[in-house]
Amino acid sequence: MTDNAHRGFWGDAWRRLARNRAAIIAAIVILLVTLVAFAGPAFSPHAFDAIDWDNMAVAPGGPNDHWLGTDRLGRDLYVRTLQGVQISLQIGLLATLVSLCIGVAWGATAGYLGGKIDEVMMRIVDVLYSLPYIFIVIILSTLFDRGNVYVLFLAIGAVGWLTMARIVRGQTMSLRRREFIEAAVAGGVSTPAILLRHIVPNVVGPVIIYATLTIPQMILFESFLSFLGLGVQEPQASLGSLINEGAQEMESAAWLLLVPASFLVTLLTCFNFLGDGLRDALDPRDR
Amino acid sequence: MNRTLLSIRELSVRYSTPDGIVPAVNDFSLDLQAGECVGIVGESGAGKSQSFLAVMGLLPGNATVGGTATLGSESLLGCGIDALNRLRGARIAMIFQDPMTSLTPHMRVGEQIAESLVLHKGLSQTDAMARALDLLQQVQVTDARRRLHQYPHELSGGMRQRVMIAVALACDPEVLIADEPTTALDVTVQAQILSLLAELKRERRMGLVLVTHDLGVVAGVADRVLVMYGGRVVESGAVGEMLVSPRHPYTRALLRSMPRIDDDRTAPLTAIPGQPPSPAKLPSGCAFHPRCAGADAACRDQLPAMLEGRTRAACHHPEGAS
Fold this sequence. Notes:
- The structure holds two protein chains of two kinds.
- By secondary structure, chain A is mostly helical.
- Chain A is built from eleven helices and no strands.
- Chain A has helices at residues 9-19, 21-39, 77-113, 115-130, 133-143, 149-159, 162-176, 179-186, 191-227, 239-248, 255-282.
- The longest helix of chain A is centred in the N-terminal third of the chain and has 37 residues, at 77-113.
- The two termini of chain B are 35 Å apart.
- The relative contact order of chain B is 0.14.
- The model of chain B has no long low-confidence stretch (mean pLDDT 86).
- Chain B is globular.
- In chain B, α4 crosses α6 (157-169).
- By secondary structure, chain B is α/β, with parallel strands linked by helices.
């Protein structure tokens, strides 16, 4: 896999990714949306929680400076949606990062050490898998302060690492008996150093792929929780809570649903395309 | 003058498999002196690699190792992983058969050499890299300064094996174990690597163990030869005696199966009939008896003892015995 002379694994992967037009467009769109989400609110005269008593539930394109209209309480939808994108993105990244750290550490350790330790560690994963996700999250959301979504998603990341652990374990097991690991062992390199320096960098490919595909899952999950009223609390907005509010008014004010929903759909689609593109680029055998 | 570096006594390796206990190595003993090269020769499955993987603590979990192996005053077997990690890489090092897969693919060559220097000698990264450059030059890597920053896949097979040797030599080990170091290389590169190993051994007065199935490799470099068959040493002696007048029928058969430049070139090469035995189903008595022309009832029933002579041979009817 790495023997493509004079270019290197990453150079090759980059070239394959660059040839994948869908993935490149998706990456550009994600970057643009991120940029707009963080810079955009500054251009609007309105704050995300300010109420405009003169313009309540106005449609987009009206004779005012609410570019995407307002909701029933007269709050600017443009600012609120971008705010929601910010929070959704941050939560997606945070939860993915947490699940990545735990998953990689757990999986690499279990896969490398093998034997009884592996058995015990992976049975713990199996047990956690069989617990209903939403149930755990509801319990966690009552334990933590409900307003603090970051704590909640730290916790979600902490239960969302199971698949990552399995993927990394599988990869590690296939690496463990490779000669370069044996050579490192013969060189007196300690087990933690072998894991950190010789194993983990070699599983980076599948880990990146899976992480890219986890981000949209986490965003969707956040939206789901916010839709249920367990996630982001008023007056803060996330894409999920905005869609929830919009859904209640979809017959009279469809833009309240359509605007945040189109952002969500765009982001999720792009992350999935990017993840697929990365998978093809980093793991050409699986095509 | 002669100092014993590595002493292996009655080493045995047994695997517990679903089909029962499989003995891979039996009663393997070796004393390696400073500045000496010992060749270990045998067919696949003869236990030659297994013996030294056991010494380095590299066997999988289902293997049981018996006997003793001492490096100077330190025991290598059953000394605990931390003690072992202080020895291996620092005082006893190993290089492997396939230089294509023995270097970590994502690490630059220099970093891989520096790793053990930082680990065992406590050098700073900068000092270790300077020393790595020095080592690359010692193993005669051309354009060493540039190679230092290249990845393994950018090097040729022979170059990679030189890098492997540099990694192994980084901490000035007393003993170097080379497990089929030239098998994966083409013939001209083989010769270069072997003469490099011989030269390094001489300069550093290192003990060198050369595990190979190629008698030609041994003839060029080794001072002493151990021939293994079915997990046991069947004959050992000085390289001159072993190649000219071996006493064990297996060694003789091995030699007859190999072309020699100084020999009657019209004489046919004879293959050894049959297959090398699987360690799981070793024949009774002398493990070589099913393939040996001179075998009799004693060979079938009794394990032959080591007989002293020009060479030490484990055979009931050694050549040159009265």
